Amino acid sequence: MSIALTIATTDYDHFRVHAKAGQTLVFDLSSSRSGTRFDPVLTLLDASGREIASEDDTYFDKDPRLIFRVPDSGDYVVRVW
Questions:
Q1: For residues 70 and 76, is the Cβ–Cβ distance under 8 A?
Q2: Measuring CA to CA, which residue among 54, 68, 64 is closest to residue 19?
Q3: Which contacts qualify for 60-66: CB closer than 8 Å, 24 or more apart?
Q4: Among 72, 81, 35, CA closest to 54
Q5: Secondary structure (H, E, C), 31-80
Q6: Beta bridge partners of 17
Q7: What is the pTM of this model?
Q8: How many Å apart are CA 17 and CA 42, to the nearest integer?
Q9: Between the CA of residue 56 and those of 27, 53, 63, 72, what are the distances in Å?
Q10: pLDDT tens, N- to C-terminus, the chain (81 residues)
Q11: Is residue 29 within 8 Å of 42, Cβ to Cβ?
Q12: Which has the closest alpha carbon to 47: 71, 80, 81?
């Protein structure tokens, strides 16, 4: 699934996803590779809001790619900032 979004410099966008134990979630944000100057960060939160993973500058052009193997079924929140 791909989602197109617009984020301001001081903005935090959140996306809730439901995942099952054992699934691998891949979040790949294409910003610089699309020609913008935005330097984003991806953060994954558990259902209680605790940060469990984060990625910044995976690619040479500052775009993040977060790969996460889900330990427990439930809701997770992806923060893009």
A1: yes
A2: 68
A3: 61/32, 61/33, 62/31, 62/32, 63/28, 63/29, 63/30, 63/31, 63/32, 63/33, 64/27, 64/28, 64/29, 64/40, 65/26, 65/27, 65/28, 65/29, 66/25, 66/26, 66/27, 66/28, 66/42
A4: 81
A5: CHHHCCCCCCEEEEECCCCCEEEEEECCCCCCCCEEEEECCCCEEEEEEE
A6: 76
A7: 0.74
A8: 14
A9: 12, 11, 7, 24
A10: 555 556 556 678 888 999 999 999 998 877 665 666 667 788 999 999 999 998 887 666 678 889 999 999 999 999 988
A11: yes
A12: 71
CA atoms within 13 A on the CB side of 28: 8
| Residue 61 tokens, joined | 């052009």
Q: Two tokens at 39?
A: 């330097």
